[in-house]
Amino acid sequence: MAAPDSRRNILILCVDRDDDIGRKTGIETPILGRDANLEAASRLALADPEEADANAMFAAVSLYDRLAAEGEDTYQLATIAGSSEGGVEADRSLIHELGIVLEKFPSREVILVTDGFADEFIVPIIQSRIHITSIRRVVVKHSERIEESWAIFLRYMKTLFNDPHYSRFSLGVPGILLVVLGFLIVLDQLQNAGMIIPFIVGMTLLLRGFGIDKKLASLRFMLPPPERQLVLASIGVGLILSVIGCYLGVVEAVGFIPENSPPFWSNIAYWIQLSPILVGNFLLKAVDLIVFGAMVALLGGFVSYFIQGDPRRLRNIVGLIVTFWLRFIAIESAKVLNEPGKPLTLTSPLVLMTIWGFITTITSVIILYGIHKKFM
Fold first, then answer.
1. Three-state helix/strand/coil letters over the chain
2. What is the average pLDDT across 35-63?
3. Does 201 share its domain with 231?
4. Whether 196 and 241 share a structural domain
5. What is the average pLDDT value for the chain, to the nearest integer?
6. Domain identity same for 232 and 218
């Protein structure tokens, strides 16, 4: 009676997760057999001599030749590919093609051959279908450290962008800074960016460095709902900007006080005569940041009401429109205070701004009231 065959079927598998083979040579995968893999590797190397997957396929052919020559087990060589889109599409393609290979060559063991890149994605997928007995990583010697460094760099970058724990700082803080810069440019206050941006960055580093953000997170059960937090945050930012604006305005106004001016209580009439110039220059310097802060607070309230489906969000729209026109009215008023002798006419900028602001506000109220009656 013949002894039972104890030879095992072992699959030598080469994996191309981003489908360089298909994109650069047009060869369909999976590729089964030594000769087919050797031809595919040669065509891929000719198409792109720097392609790491070609080196991995040549290494897989070499490994197959060496193990097959020993004759202890039955070996088969195969190459599967994912998708150039990466992500879920690539993983689905790998699973599908691995299933096809295992149907044609049933095996319980696999020797995995890769170029070392994206192994953290490939290995779990293969292990979910078949036992991996060995992994052969093929990295070109002169570029081994570069490959590994690049893989580590990409891994950390994905963590920074995809992990909410890190993305709130790596993406959130730059996003806030860009929004603030945008508002400063619109309000022609870019010269104050050097003061506002370090303040925001400093507060962020302070919260993070002393772990205050974690302590605040542990008190989440005591905090109001997220939409209410948004209102409080926007009001807080608005107040900070308004205070900074008032400070800049006061500093600007103080610069227009003549030297040797008498104390206020000793010559009130003198200060009453000087007050228009002081108020005018205060407004010219402070109004932009004050209006900016008010609009931030109103915008936060609008977003909060919008999330809740609260019709009060329409009031915030009106508030934004009124605040927008108040900026121009305040600036023109400041110019009038600085030049009290200049006559006011119907064509004066202050009068025109006031009329247009009034018309715009009334129109927006009528439109929004109609929207409210029709859709809410």
1. CCCCCCCCEEEEEEEECCCHHHHHHCCCCCEECHHHHHHHHHHHHHHCCCCHHHHHHHHHHHHHHHHHHHCCCEEEEEEEECCCCCHHHHHHHHHHHHHHHHHHCCCCEEEEEECCCCHHHHHHHHHCCCEEEEEEECCCHHHHHHHHHHHHHHHHHHHHHHCHHHHHHHCHHHHHHHHHHHHHHHCCCHHHHHHHHHHHHHHHHHHHHCCHHHHHHHCHHHCCCHHHHHHHHHHHHHHHHHHHHHHHHHHHHHCCCCCCCCCHHHCHHHHHHHHHHHHHHHHHHHHHHHHHHHHHHHHHHHHHHHHHCCCCHHHHHHHHHHHHHHHHHHHHHHHHHHCCCCCCCCCCHHHHHHHHHHHHHHHHHHHHHHHHHHHC
2. 87
3. no
4. no
5. 79
6. no
